[in-house]
Design a protein that fits this description.
Layout: H1 4-10, H2 13-16, H3 31-39, E1 48-53, E2 59-64, H4 67-78, H5 84-106, H6 128-144, E3 151-159, E4 169-176, E5 182-186, E6 197-200, H7 201-206
Antiparallel strand pairs: 1-2, 3-4, 4-5, 5-6
Keywords: Signal
Signal peptide: 1-27
Length: 208
């Protein structure tokens, strides 16, 4: 079909928009919020999140993170204040619950992991930019609620730029307050309701 080349191009925003290394990430408390503005997305405000889907945030859904869901997240994170590792484990469970909540809010076919190109533009499907925006939004809401004892939310990061033989990819990032150690928080390869990958950012950068 004549439309196929256009479909392939629009289906790979993670690849095209991340085709070259980004400039160094900004530091400071506004750095993750600035990432949304850099890409024309909308960051969270209070408990409101503008969730991205459709690949490259082509579609957006406003939703609130509150009520019973937030109460469960608060309880899980407060019970994990003993160490950074415990907090990361709790965050993985909170994000698992959040992706299930987001899928239910969107309705339709749940997001297929890994953003298959043929699903570009399809309602409810998410590429790595959508996943990064949604995860960073949630992390910022949790941070603003005072629920992150051991971590701060940082500017999202990218890896790969074709010339190094890897597809470009993005992730949300947190850093330990005490040591500064950075961690990728990446649910892109996971289905809604599954635990995201949370791994050292340096190791994430080395993956393909």
């Amino acid at each position: 079909m004549r439309s196929t080349p256009l479909l392939i191009l629009t289906a790979l925003p993670c690849l095209l928009m991340g085709g070259f290394p980004e400039s160094p990430a900004l530091a400071g408390p506004q750095a993750p919020q600035n990432w949304f503005g850099e890409r024309g997305y909308v960051g969270p405000s209070g408990n409101r999140i503008i969730a991205c889907h459709g690949y490259g945030c082509a579609r957006r859904l406003e939703l609130s993170v509150e009520g019973a869901w937030l109460s469960r997240a608060r309880a899980a994170l407060r019970a994990a204040q003993g160490s950074p590792d415990a907090e990361r484990q709790a965050l993985a469970d909170v994000i698992r619950s959040y992706t299930a909540y987001l899928a239910a809010s969107l309705g339709g076919k749940p997001d297929v992991p890994g953003s298959p190109p043929q699903l570009s533009g399809v309602y409810g499907q998410m590429d790595c930019l959508d996943e990064t925006a949604n995860t960073t939004s949630l992390l910022l809401v949790l941070q603003d609620q005072g629920l992150l004892s051991h971590h701060v939310v940082e500017h999202p990061e990218s890896r790969g730029f074709f010339l190094d033989g890897r597809y470009p990819h993005f992730t949300a990032v947190i850093a330990e307050k005490r040591t500064g150690a950075e961690w990728a928080v990446d649910p892109w390869k996971k289905a809604p309701g599954q635990r995201p990958e949370i791994l050292p950012l340096d190791r994430w950068r080395q993956d393909s």
